Amino acid sequence: MRRVTTFAAALLAGALTLTACGGSDSTNAQPEASGSSSGSAPASDIKVGLAYDIGGRGDQSFNDAAAAGLDKAKAQFGVQTKEAEASQGEAEPAKEERLRALADAGYNPIIAVGFAYSASVAKVAKELPDTQFAIIDDAAAVGPNIANLLFAEEQGSFLVGAAAGLKSKTNNVGFVGGVDVPLIHKFEAGFKAGAEAAKPGIKVQSKYLTQPPDFSGFGDPAKGKTAAAGMFDAGADVVYQAAGGSGGGVFEAAKAAKGLAIGVDSDQYNTADPSVKDVILTSMLKKVDVAVFDFVSSVNDKKFVAGEKIYDLKADGVGYSTSGGQVDDIKDKLEAYKAKIISGEITVPTK
Amino acid sequence: MHLVHRLHRSPTEEGVAISTSSASPTADSRRDDQGSAAVELQGITKRFPGVVANRDINMAVRRGQVHAVVGENGAGKSTLMKILYGMQRPDEGSISIEGREVSFHSPSDAIDAGVGMVHQHFMLADNLTVLENVVLGREPSRAGMLDFGAARRRIKEISDSYGLDVEADRLVEELGVGDRQRVEILKVLYRGAKILILDEPTAVLVPQEVDELFDNLRELTGEGITVLFISHKLDEVLAVADEITVIRRGTTVATVRPADVTARQLAELMVGSELPTPETRESTVTDIPVLRVEALTVRSLEGRALLEGVSFTIHQGEVLGVAGVEGNGQAELVEAIMGMRQLAGGTVSLADEDLTAWPTRRRREAGVGYIPEDRHRHGLLLDAPLWENRILGHQTEPPNVKGPWIDRAGARADTERIVRDYDVRTPSIDVLAAALSGGNQQKLIVGREMSGSPKVLIASHPTRGVDVGAQAAIWDHIRTARREGLAVLLISADLDELIGLSDSIKVILRGRLVADVDPAEVTPEALGSAMTGADEKV
Amino acid sequence: MSRLEPRKVAMTLAAPVIAIVFAALVTALVLAATGDPVWSTVTTVWDYGSKPRVIALTLNQATTYYLSALAVAIGFRMNLFNIGVDGQYRLAAFAAAVVGTSVSLPKPLHLLVIVLTAMLVGAMWAGVAAVLKVSRGVSEVISTIMLNAIATSLIAFLLSKVATDVAGSNNRGTDPIPESGHFPGIPLIPGSPLDSFGFIIVAVLAGIAYSVVLGRTRFGFDLRATGRSESAAVASGVSVKRMVLLSMLLSGAVAGLVGMPQLLGASYTYSIDFPAGLGFTGIAIALLGRNNAVGMALSAVLFAFLDASSVILDINDISKEIVLIMQGTIVLSVVVAYELVRRYSIAAEQRRVSRELASQGSPEREEVAT
């Protein structure tokens, strides 16, 4: 019994400490951004609450994009902001409680980042009809005080897929998804369709780093590197990653294999490590920051609109980046695809 | 040798008990020789919280002599030696070595002062040579290189001058127990010891090896080495010591010369009361077989035979003793009978039932009691209270259980009975087994295994590590049960116990029963040589 | 274990209290070092934690934690380290969710079928590790870690087969269990908008059953004996293999219950965001609660309370990671404290025994330590 106990304790304490360390990365950045409003921004009495899923600010991905939108709104409108983040393995009641606690502290509107908040937002919004909610990436939670901010990731992915198809010399491209969840399936589906459209018969390799509930696939560069290296070894010359923090590993693998990689969410040519910049062909832009900023702006203008707001190509909510100039030569073709998608001539599959 | 044993046959022959005061003349004469004392202890007192382990110990050890320290288990011998070897510091009193008062903070201080200790359990690395073991921690070096040549010469020198007969380049794993002990002694001498403490050195030796050790000790003292010899085997002490100090309940009660006392007197000094005897002569053996073991064979994982074709029958009212040097298959025999070991062949039957295929629990339920050799590993749950230990091994039998439920009241009441009947000294049955002394733990086990009227008792070293009083009680219980028809398989390293209790004795050697011995006629010496295989026909 | 002697009770409580106080000190130091106000943090957490709504939330979380701790403790009492509670409960909850949606039965029966399915699946998954251990000698530590990973993949695979995608949702889960399979909540905390999980009753019953089975039955005695000393248990006639098998099955069955409060009281579906990692929290709680039914209940409430407080810390700009630091420190220091207290109390008991014997017996009976 004693030996087992000691072993267990060591293991657990280790795990907890690691978690604590990992977590602190994201909070280090917080003091600069949160708290009372600062600088020359005009004062506003609007208090915006932002609830993240696991990862929070500093995840180099989707949560960071939301944070950027919030920062911008703060600078522009002088709103007060508050961010709160989910804990690993927490159950839905804890998410509900996070929303309630934000509302208790006077935050209105409250933005929930990620589909995991779907049920919680649906429930708490009903309890608190005077609080306005927004939820990103979810259309299932509906109510008169809920705005659903949705993205057509498949459309943006189609364009970068087409870019990959056009650029591939080996007729072989790859897709690395962070976690095997339906949201990331949309990226994959769009990418495949785009590559196929640009170069019929092209081979598309596909790999997800982890399975839920293991969400480490969104934050493990080593896993991303291994998966992408495997694809390059198997003949791919362009790999698209929709893997959040794991994406850095994909870039490294591309660099090592002298291949190309495609970034995701933000323009990663500008955010990635300078040493791998030259392998980034383009990035699929998912403008969560725009969505967040727009939403806060609408509330600031007292123009809250409930229901779905779709950020697609047409609304410029998704797109592709051109920094680095690697897609300059195919820009015309990509723009043509974009026009066809906007006009409805091409319908991009979502799964 | 074995004076005690012979004395027991005529317990009233010499009833002269030496009282504490009667030892004072010797103490006075000791003072006359103070100038030549190698070690002198004065007023040594050592308290552990709540317990006084040593109090007011006074003794002087003369140079070039074998000085024995005797006492019962738990009398405080080990604490005293730990103090002398720097492992513990006395609360009061002084230690003088060669007339100089010293204060040891650690064993290395003691070694520097010329005091060395040979522990009961050898501390040698099997896969190293004698040379390497000896120099370990004191590696000789020249210009930063290990200088084995010098060390080898020095070992040879020591070995020759004290007649230790140690070969420097043998691997320790190839050596017998006696050889290993000599290596330990050499190791201590190599470090410059002039005063040698030997803690129960004979516990691991057979009689022949004991004699060799004593010869070595005489050589050592002849060369001016002083030996402190710790033991509770009085015959050995009388044979080898020049002076004997008796410790009882933490204090020195007498210092005597062997010529002045008999073993019985010495024993009574140790115990402070009348002595028990393992003698059982009137036979209660019947012709009704109880435990029958036939052609029992046990192999190790590698297929080596640990037990080979062992057969015997124990009858109602019979105690069958198994004599042998430890490690010759006794443990395997016991475990095979208890169903704790896979058999390679043979059968075990109880009365007329073949229980070869039965699991341990069923065997115990059928009436096999078991006093294990290692009570801490096999006999007790040290972290559990006494009453839970009463249940252990009898989890399916009343009064411990009612159906699937533990019967706390029943088990507790029966534990109280055992504590009473077997004189288990404990303040309550709720204390943890670990809190009891070894003897009291053993009495609890014996009491437990005797309850529920077993048909056969497998007793491995039933009195090992038990003080004299408890030993007598355990013997009594075994004798009483035997009279009532209990069949007992007795395995013991204590030859007096074996000869005294057994109705017949079989000698086990390398997994085989090699000889039958009649305890009424055999001497411990003869039994000892049979055990080593020196003489297979006794 | 037996009578409530004040000394024993004090000894039992000493270790966790020391550990918690020590952890609180460490946490306070960390707070002070990072410039956060210690006292106001305490009052903030306390004020928040005593709201009825948060008490209800804490109790609900504690219910889940408690079941997990029980499952772990069954193994611990036998010196088995079931790290696999995590995989066991997730697989069990998934299977229960599938069975729950695919059968239609009247209310109590439906519930019973779901719960029994969960227990069965949990036991089976733990049973794999048990069989590997008794037949091939594979350490349960290794096999249960592996089985956790396998459970993750297996669930992901099966979920992709059975899940029906809901329009507009990026979640993916089983169909909701119909109302007849819900475990109704109970308004336990007055003034809370949040009902308590009805499953709290099951958790309490499980705790009682745990105490009774381990403390009062032959089976429990064999199990504890094996945990205390396997060699002594073997000599006493316990079949260790059988005990390994039975206790792992039992541990797995209880692990199967871990996901039930959430499944039957809140989400009614097993989706990709079903809480994970509860098995590991259970290990910490079993350690702190010393495998004691009541001790683990208190520990579960403490851990749940600390978890709940992380929400308010976050909102007050105090790193919520200090909760993890506190929990981690508690676990580490409690083990150290238990070992110290254990040594101290054995030594104390030995002293007490010799003292009492010395005072009661004649001088001849005096015992002397060596």
Features:
heterotrimer; A: 351 residues; alpha/beta; Rossmann fold; 6-stranded parallel β-sheet; 6-stranded mixed β-sheet; 12 helices; C: 370 residues; mainly alpha
CATH topology of the largest domain in chain A: Rossmann fold
Tell me the helix content of chain C: over 70%
N-to-C terminal Cα separation of chain C, in Å?
Answer: 30 Å
Uncertain regions spanning at least 5 consecutive residues of chain C: 361-370
Helix count from the secondary structure assignment of chain C: 14
How many distinct beta strands of chain C? Answer: 0
Mean pLDDT of chain C: 88
Topology order of chain A in helix (H) and strand (E) letters: HHEHEHEHEEHEHEHEHEHEHEEH
Radius of gyration of chain C: 23 Å
Q: Let me know the largest β-sheet of chain A.
A: 6 strands, parallel
* Residue windows where pLDDT falls under 50 for at least 5 positions of chain A: 17-39
Protein chains sharing the most extensive interface:
A-C, 64 and 69 residues
Oligomeric state of shown chains? heterotrimer
Please tell me the CATH architecture of the largest domain in chain A by its name.
3-Layer(aba) Sandwich
Q: What structural class do helix, strand and pairing data of chain A support?
A: alpha/beta
How far apart the termini of chain A lie comes to: 51 Å
* String of helices and strands of chain C: HHHHHHHHHHHHHH
Largest sheet: spatial strand order of chain A: 2-1-3-4-5-11
DSSP helix fraction of chain A: 40-55%
